[in-house]
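Box 4.2: Ligand-aware structure prediction
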Amino acid sequence: MKKLFYNISKLYGANERGTFKKGHEMQQLNTLENAWMLVENGTIIQMGQCPSEKEIEDLINHSNEWIDLEGLEVLPGFVDSHTHIVFAAPRHEEFAMRIQGATYEEIAENGGGILNSAKKLQAMSENDLYEQASKRVILMLAHGTTTIEIKSGYGLTVEAEIKILRVVKRLKENFKCTIKSTFLGAHAFPAEFKNNQQGYIDLVLNEMLPIVIAEKLADHIDVFCDKGFFSVEQTSLILEEAAKRDIPAKIHANELGLTGGVQTAVEHQAWSADHLEHCEENEIAALQKGFSQNYGGTMPVALPGTSYFLGIPYAPIRNFIGNGLPVALATDFNPGSSPICSIQTIWALACTQMKMMPVEAFHAVTCNAARALRLENEVGSLAVGMRADFFTTKTVDAVKGIPYFFGQNHVDRVFVGGDRV
Ligand code: NIG
Ligand code: FE
């Protein structure tokens, strides 16, 4: 069953399969004009530009279905490599407290924050959580995101962490888009373990992790390695145990301070280090070292939604790019620090607040974001052999226009594996 997509005025992200871009390469945009794609079994099997009438006729004769994309522009579906979308409720009360001057850390120290979300999630049924999370997946799809990473971390008990990961498993089974799961049992210390942190780490490693492995519930492991949360030693201990079981790491690092999180990520060959609001030369040197090693490097992932919503610094991505590093962007969609579902808004924030050029940020939300999940051979670019995940937009010059006309949804039709969703 071959599907022909034709009449595409401009197709962006026509990179070679497996591409991700570092430093100045992030400025180099690959496009096709007057493009077409032939899709079979969800994969692009042929593509090109400016076909003659005869070529169109041939293509049509060799396809079973023809989809006219009406002269619109096409972008690869966005890859959101960092979300926490299985949560029970918003935290409106903390929003109000922060507006009146309280900081994120003060709220967390007083039992709010992640612990507040955990209390609410523990009380909610798996079915209700599933219903809520699936609405968020639908919302993200409608905003052009076709690959989503989802973390646990609002459970903090064996039962509740596993409940979240089972919800993610159901989402994977029921949605056509690519969903990847991350076990973040080490997100915060529950109040009852305040004076017995090792006791909680033992629970994560000896009780949660075996179930996660037995039920194949996680593609990666994460730790909130930061001031007031997990120390670098505690993080190392958890990542070492995960590595023994072949679970790759993606960690929360350097959101609240210069804590050594980035260095720890590189030391443990993490696939990504996310947040990075506090990064100086040593962090950049560590990331550079990662990309010189044969494990493939630790992708820096910036989360400008968090900086915007919490009023904290933005990750110094110009220094990253200027030092030849790649950068990815994600929403961090969660109820505490970044209640944003739309990569389009993240793209705009990256341009206005972090001074990324629109083209650089486009790569940060497509091929580089795919690399943060080591999925760059499957999603994030439109090339032969890649999944036919893409959307059309009526915005002309979309890579410039989407971050410019911020705050609106530029997505027209979304396709996952060549099927309309
Ligand atoms: O990525 N920083 C740690 N975790 C989440 C926020 C958690 C919360 O406040 O609910 C984040 O920002
Ligand atoms: Fe996060």
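In the box above, the bound molecule is N-(iminomethyl)-L-glutamic acid. The mean pLDDT is 97.
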